[in-house]
Amino acid sequence: VPSEFELIARHFTRGTTHTALGVGDDGALIAPTPGCELVISTDMLVEGTHFLPDTNPEDLGWKTLAVNVSDMAAMGAKPRWATLAMALPGADEAWIAAFARGVFACADEFGIDLIGGDTTRGPRNFCVTIFGEVVAGKALRRDGARVGDEIWVSGQPGRAALGLANLQGRTALSEPLLSDCVAALQRPQPRVTLGLALQGLATAAIDVSDGLLADLGHILEASAVSAQLKIAVPPAPTLERDAWLSGGDDYELVFTVPLAKHADIVALSQTLGLALTCIGRIEAGPAGRMDVFDADGTPIDVPRRGYDHFANGSAPPSN
Amino acid sequence: VPSEFELIARHFTRGTTHTALGVGDDGALIAPTPGCELVISTDMLVEGTHFLPDTNPEDLGWKTLAVNVSDMAAMGAKPRWATLAMALPGADEAWIAAFARGVFACADEFGIDLIGGDTTRGPRNFCVTIFGEVVAGKALRRDGARVGDEIWVSGQPGRAALGLANLQGRTALSEPLLSDCVAALQRPQPRVTLGLALQGLATAAIDVSDGLLADLGHILEASAVSAQLKIAVPPAPTLERDAWLSGGDDYELVFTVPLAKHADIVALSQTLGLALTCIGRIEAGPAGRMDVFDADGTPIDVPRRGYDHFANGSAPPSN
């Protein structure tokens, strides 16, 4: 049986491109770019809570890093370095090799050096900590939304939730929607380029990990404002509508922009080839309040606002 | 039942002293000190592998952060920030409150801002990532040991292993040794002050997490040298001798120093009020080779070199 150290060396030790000292000492050494702040985020993914035991390991490797990359996108930061700690039930080399391929595919896509880690035995669990850089003072925070700002969202949240529902037999999607939704679930594409482009345009931003309304709620609470939303969802409650409003795991960005910058966002959508949709406006009012209407102007009851890992009895559909 | 977010807010959200933006956004923001490199390390502690289910949660909180602080000490870095991700089987508030007290006791002791985290449901698992600072180019690495250097160790490794053996009924220590060994196991004291003082003196350093010989072996391999050791251990194999040579979990420092700096280390020991013992010398020879003798000059067979989480069938005694 190959040892822990052999497995790590074989599959997780690779060269770095912008790191003073990588894996293999008590700590890694990095030289931050002068004039930049470091943006740091950590996420833990647990088997049975965030992913199913039979998840394709290469997809899982991608997603484990991608959900952290998405936090950098939401801060308007360039992802630069990451660490990966993992607990595994045993040394299944084929599984580890596939998982590592997925991790490095994502790292390569976004220019990230993997600079450290830890491997131990235990119920399957992955913890990534990611480090991005942003020019000092330019990060996109949650607390900057102002009355009169427009609220925008990238892509279409809810695709990952629909993909999961299809895999679980709760709906039957047709192609090409099916492939699109399954890809959104298994290989989410963090909106890093969008986040970087929003520096100087957006007043606040967050990524959709818990659901559109839940995550927008975090902006409203941090900024102490309300919102009025008009969203082109089906008029009656359906799986599709619930997914749009409350489906997590998509990693689109929700952001607020001063009204005067409306045309800049329209132009940015063209430049990036990425749908950016205005879904409402920030208003004065109680922190966190949302009035939601469908395309016909019919009020929508705001559904459950995202998943809380302890207040509910059951596991969430996914991360 | 209080929600995940309420529990985190109640017990883990505290002010920071040197952080631009702490817990509560997609990422934390820190401003690295100009001219310094960042030193980064991550460790995962799993219930059943690194600690027992009935471990006192306050001690466990301390130790979860302390083992990471020790990595900073081993690099000669000043610990500055940390993130904590955790999986918990449920929302046991008393347990979480005690765990948080232990974490913050350690954070306060070493001047660390807790800047981010993640909480989720799952088998109990803690992952800390820690960030220290060191003047660029001054970090203590594993690969700098040179032929002729002396090998030193702080304190006396093996106390944590003896403490565990006593708790498990495999030995019966007398006071005050018993209290000393149990404290070494449950409340390890990372040698941060020593690590900082060794900048400019030591050529290589590592902390004793897997056992004295195992961890010294990492220095020898990284530096491509051999070592001759003379260690004042009992002549016959005993639990005490095994603990000295191979007991993990102590977080003392092993380091190499040019012969010409011998008097500086003796003086440093006085200044710090901390035992620093010369246990041997770096020699030319195959990378990693060790010849070990006891106080009488009798050769000692080098025992098993530390714990490998996958190559062995059973869990290690502790981290």
**Helix content range of the residues of chain A, please?**
25-40%
- Overall pLDDT level of chain A: 89
Query: What percentage of the residues of chain A does DSSP assign to strands (E)?
Result: 15-25%
Biggest beta-sheet profile of chain A: 7 strands, mixed
Neighbour order of strands in the largest sheet of chain A: 7-9-6-10-8-11-12
Largest interface: A-B, 75 and 75 residues
Overview features:
homodimer; 319 residues; alpha+beta; seven-stranded mixed sheet; four-stranded mixed sheet; 32% helix; globular; disordered C terminus
Give the helix/strand layout.
The structure is a homodimer of 319-residue chains.
Chain A: H1 4-12, E1 28-30, E2 36-46, H2 57-74, E3 78-88, H3 93-110, E4 113-121, E5 125-135, E6 150-154, H4 159-167, H5 177-186, H6 192-197, E7 204-207, H7 212-223, E8 226-230, H8 239-246, E9 253-257, H9 262-272, E10 276-283, E11 290-293, E12 299-300
Parallel strand pairs in A: 3-4, 8-11
Antiparallel strand pairs in A: 2-5, 3-5, 6-9, 6-10, 7-9, 8-10, 11-12
Notes on the protein architecture:
Two copies of one chain form a homodimer. In chain A, helix 3 links the parallel strand 3 (78-88) and strand 4. The longest helix of chain A has 18 residues, at 57-74. In chain A, helix 2 (57-74) packs parallel to helix 3 (93-110), helix 4 (159-167) packs across helix 5 (177-186) and helix 4 crosses helix 8 (239-246). The two termini of chain A are 33 Å apart. Chain A contains nine helices and twelve strands. The radius of gyration of chain A is 20 Å and the shape is globular. With 319 residues, chain A is of the alpha+beta class. In chain A, the strands form two sheets. In chain A, strands 7-9-6-10-8-11-12 form a seven-stranded mixed β-sheet, sandwiched between helices. In chain A, strands 2-5-3-4 form a four-stranded mixed β-sheet.
